[in-house]
Amino acid sequence: MSDTMDGHGLSLTHGPEAPPARRQRWGELRTALAADRAHWRRRGYGSATLRRGYHAACLYRLSRYAHERGWRMAAWLLWLINGWWTGADIPPSSRIAGGLLIPNPYGSVIAGAVGRDVAFGTHASIGGLLKEPDRDIGGGPGLPVLGDGVVMEAGAIVLGAVRVGDAARIGPRAIILKDVDPRSEVMPQPWRPLPGRGAAA
User: Fold this and answer.
1) PANTHER family per the record (predicted)?
2) Half-sphere exposure of 193 toward its Cβ, with a 13 Å CA cutoff?
3) Which of 91, 96, 118, 119 has its CA 20 to 30 A from that of 38?
4) 161 domain-assigned
5) How many structural domains is the chain composed of?
6) Is residue 17 part of a domain?
7) Rounded to 5, what percent of the chain is helix, strand, coil?
8) How far apart are CA 105 and CA 157, in angstroms?
9) SS3 call for 28
């Protein structure tokens, strides 16, 4: 039985149905890692091999592989190792296509579905909201879906069952709670001084 793939190259196969052959799964993992390295080079970061952001992607992909094979204990052990070594929280239940770029993984959380060639800045994260724990739009219950080519700047956060369109850019420290159209740019409210603050005593 072959995998069902959505438009972002994410595997939609769930449950204990007959999994594909081990060689096919391992080949998909290697293809995704090659796409990760290629994205690092395109962004001008050079070789990714010794970078912790690439290690975070490798450990996630191994944990996801174990998760899909039904080796749940191994999957969550790899998740713990990833958090300890890189500081990134990427659960094996997340679905991330090839081309993941996390130059500074410490403090990043990626829980949901992510398309191809997505970049996460320092402390950029996606995850769920407690008020919508059950709504599933494709990333998991209460979790977001990011399209292809999305850029999450430093500190940007996407929360809840939210869809971010292809090639969208989420500005630094922006908090996204609603859907974002493809190729749009979302910036946070500009900083402004508060009256009466900072005056000399």
Assistant:
1) SERINE ACETYLTRANSFERASE
2) 5
3) 91
4) yes
5) 1
6) no
7) 25, 15, 60
8) 14
9) helix
SS3 185: strand
106: domain CATH number is: 2.160.10.10
Residue 112 maps to a domain: yes
Instruction: Quote the domain boundaries for residue 154.
Output: 22-186
Backbone angles phi, psi at 195, to 5 degrees: -65, 140
How confident is the prediction along the chain (201 residues), in pLDDT tens digits per residue?
Answer: 444 445 444 544 444 444 444 444 788 888 999 999 999 888 888 788 889 999 999 999 999 999 998 999 999 999 999 999 999 999 999 999 999 999 999 999 999 999 999 999 999 999 998 776 778 888 888 999 999 999 999 999 999 999 999 999 999 999 999 999 999 999 987 777 767 655 554
Query: Which distant-in-sequence residues (6+ apart) come within 8 Å of 155 by Cβ?
Result: 121, 122, 123, 124, 172, 173
Say how far apart CA 158 and CA 152 lie, in whole Å. 9
E strand or H helix that includes residue 152: strand 151-152
3-state SS track over 72-106:
HHHHHHHHHHHHHHHCCECCCCCEECCCCECCCCC
The 3-state secondary structure of 32-56 reads HHHHHHHHHHHCCCCCCCCCHHHHH
Supply the pTM of this predicted model. Answer: 0.79
Quick one: pLDDT at residue 132?
A: 66
